[in-house]
Amino acid sequence: MTTKKKRLVGLIAATTASVLLLAGCSAGGGEAGQGSQGSGSGEAQTGGTVHMLQNADFSYLDPSRGFDGGVNAFYRLIYRGLTMVTAGDAEDPNEIVPDLAESLGEVSDDGLTWTYTLKDDIFFDDGTPITSTEMKFGISRTWDPQVGIGSPYLRNTIDAPEGYQGPYVSGDLPTIETPDDKTIVFHLKKPFPEFDSVLAQPNAVPFPEGSGAGDEFIKDVIASGPYTLAEYTPGSLIRLERNEYWDESTDEVRKAYPDEWEFEIGIDSATIDERMIAGQGDDQNAISGTLGAASLPRIQTPELQERAITADAYCTTYMGMNTTKAPFADVKVRDAINWAIDRSALVNASGGTQLADPAYMMIPPTVSSHQDFNLWETEGDKGDPEKAKELLAEAGLEDGFEFTLDIRSQPLMQAQAESIQEALKKIGVTVNLNVIDTSIYYETIGTPAQQHDAAITGWCPDWASSASTIIPPLFDGRNITEKGNSNLAQINDPTINARIDEIGAMPADEAVSAWGDLDKEIMGLSPTAPLVFGKAIFLPGENIAGYNPSTSMTDLTIIGLKDPAKG
To answer: Taking residues 415-427, what's their average pLDDT?
Structure first.
């Protein structure tokens, strides 16, 4: 019988069939799952090597640059922050807990100052102690215009001086204070009750002062977590080995069972599925991303069903349309696209109903702010080409138009893009596909100067608190940046911006429904075309234990082998 597993937290990007599912930021709602036995009977033991089979490389080893579910899961193995999302098998896997800090933050009465105290006996992988100075330096890298293209929440919440560009360009960041080696104090722009969650982001990690400038961390790391980089061949192999200076007594979440991790990169997606189904040799000690649709009929045997694990959709796959230039500057054109898209065909292109549901809103059903609405309702989710043609005619485009759609070099997204091509062909719209290498995809589409007319990507919330990490990063026009931009539609609507501020100031229970209302209001402007909510089926190796996969971010730090002698 297939194991049912739900997980609530993940981090930005888009779903991939062979990088351990990175469809967005995070999500909410659901049950805790099966704990350390998520992959079947047997407990994880210390020792051995866990393998991960991937189609594409991670975006960046540098956590200030990378920001997608696959690489964020990887970062948890080698980096630590003041706080973190708790273990994937916890009773509440969305809980934010202390990591390098002794406790969660102490907040001032006005909500503008947050204070943290570091634990004792915390070190980098060369034995150098981690103090508040290194913590501040690592966080301040987020403002560097070249390096800081990852998670935006530190920049959005901490009250940095106007024009501050990180430590390499601007020097000290006075709004983060370090009165002694163990104390760090943050001053915020405005009250932000979820600041503990901001510090659980992947770029809120320590680095030695002066390190990491330019491309220093492109092929190397300075680790603070249980593992450090032993070998890296870009596009081929990443091997991690134990960090001898990591003290497990200071880390209540990461179990770090394996002696080593090997990430095998650049494998064809069909080959990955073939190897996971066969489960021979080292592949019995391996994990991978979700199985492709073509492989699902092959896992019906009792033995394979025993290994299979399902995960619900916590991320939204969507197409962002650039609202700053024709033709998508016209809301009627964007609305026509949404009417024309055949979402039933998109579900099929995404692997069928076992792997996808049609999407008409940005907040997925598993997030508490979700509202069930459909502004483009058609019979069988097949779209309405005639309605779309009427809107194009009203926009003066009765003869159609053509545009360029950015996609990743990955089979699933290719199939989704081709489905959109076919649907829009019916209304005289030609879609030209611009295929971008997966490892640089998010940096490319997140750079407005390089982004084309539209792009397919995905998003999940970054922590489990309503939709506060869905709507603002995707639709707040004040957060549009030259690099690392997540507002792919580049929509900058004063009404939306003001409403985001109003909801952000509400008590959490009131904000839940307000975010859902705003989702519907924004969809009325069609800056994006929601496509599908992606589900997943995983098939870990027979010797894997502690595996609790997610369609947003899987916790690698609790995975191990049942029998290390086999690994």
So the answer is: 98
